[in-house]
Specification:
- There is one protein chain.
- The chain contains 7 helices and 2 strands; from the N terminus they run ααββααααα.
- It is mainly alpha-helical.
- It has one domain: Sufe protein. Chain: A (Alpha-Beta Complex), CATH 3.90.1010.
- The relative contact order is 0.18.
- The mean pLDDT is 90.
């Protein structure tokens, strides 16, 4: 699936919930369903700067695509990183670097997160896009 298709699928998933309690429960479930990151990648250089919670993000470049794995020590944050991994993992560096990530606003997430969680989410997105920009040169 493309980045746009992944985002549209998340927006559709969230459309089934009527209130934010249900949406938060869904985000927590997404975090529980996130495949575990290998322990060897839970090191300081893989921590996202700017997150109140501890969030580890590992990127692997393989066959022209970037694959992300992640984990967090906070359940909501783990669900947030799960959505971002779902959208961007398995995409080309160019597509990641140039992605218009609209799903966060479309599901109303930004207005329902605390400022620290919102900043953390932006830091995750920024780090993933930076991986895309750094590896984009390999495609040229």
């Amino acid at each position: 699936m493309t980045i746009k298709e992944q985002q549209d699928a998340i927006i559709e998933d969230f459309s089934f919930f009527t209130d934010w309690t249900e949406k938060y429960e869904y985000i927590i479930q997404l975090g529980k369903d996130l495949p575990l990151i290998e322990e060897q990648y839970k090191r300081d250089e893989n921590l996202i700067k700017g997150c109140q919670s501890r969030v580890w993000l590992h990127a692997e470049y393989k066959d022209g695509k970037i694959y992300f794995t992640a984990d967090s020590d906070a359940v909501i944050t783990k669900g947030l990183v799960s959505m971002v991994v779902r959208v961007l993992s398995g995409q080309s560096p160019k597509d990641i670097a140039e992605a218009d990530l609209y799903f966060v606003d479309a599901i109303g997430l930004k207005s329902h997160l605390s400022p620290t969680r919102s900043n953390g989410l932006l830091a995750m997105l920024k780090q993933m896009k930076m991986y895309g920009m750094a590896l984009k040169s390999r495609e040229l």
